[in-house]
Amino acid sequence: MGKGYDLSDHTSYTRMNELNNKQSLLYVDDEILNLYLFRDYFKDHFEVIVAQSGKEAIDKLSENSEVKFVISDMRMPQMNGLEFITKAQEIRPNITYCILTGYDLTPEIEKAIGDKKVARYFSKPLDPTEILLFLSAGPNNE
């Protein structure tokens, strides 16, 4: 009887750990529809946190020490993706940062990748499989 109880406890504990072991991912985009779509694409694989601006994203990073990945849209009002990432790295330098944009790869983004500020560049429309494969390699994979 005791073994059955222990097995049940172990199964519950294991299942609880599986549910709580999702890595956290912050997605930043000024378009609310993109935030909903991104969350929907990745909710089964990550704890997805969203922010609609660079300022909001800085606040979310400050509040969520468990964030391992950040993917930011490049073109946003007030603060573009690289400006946000530069500020974010001052408070959270050990996160994998990526840029997602509907525009061509710019010299500014290429330099950020070369300087290791940005681990990867993704194109819009986003390819969930491409992003998932990259992120599944783990934090700070370059």
Automatic annotation (TrEMBL):
Sequence positions bearing 4-aspartylphosphate: D73
Q: Which GO terms describe its biological process?
A: phosphorelay signal transduction system
Q: Which InterPro entries match?
A: Bact_response_regulator, CheY-like_superfamily, Sig_transdc_resp-reg_receiver
Gene3D superfamilies referenced in this protein's UniProt entry, alphabetically = 3.40.50.2300
Taking every annotated instance into account, which residue ranges of this chain make up the domain Response regulatory? 24-139
Q: What are the entry keywords? A: Phosphoprotein
Q: What is this protein called?
A: Response regulator
Q: Which organism is it from?
A: Leptospira soteropolitanensis
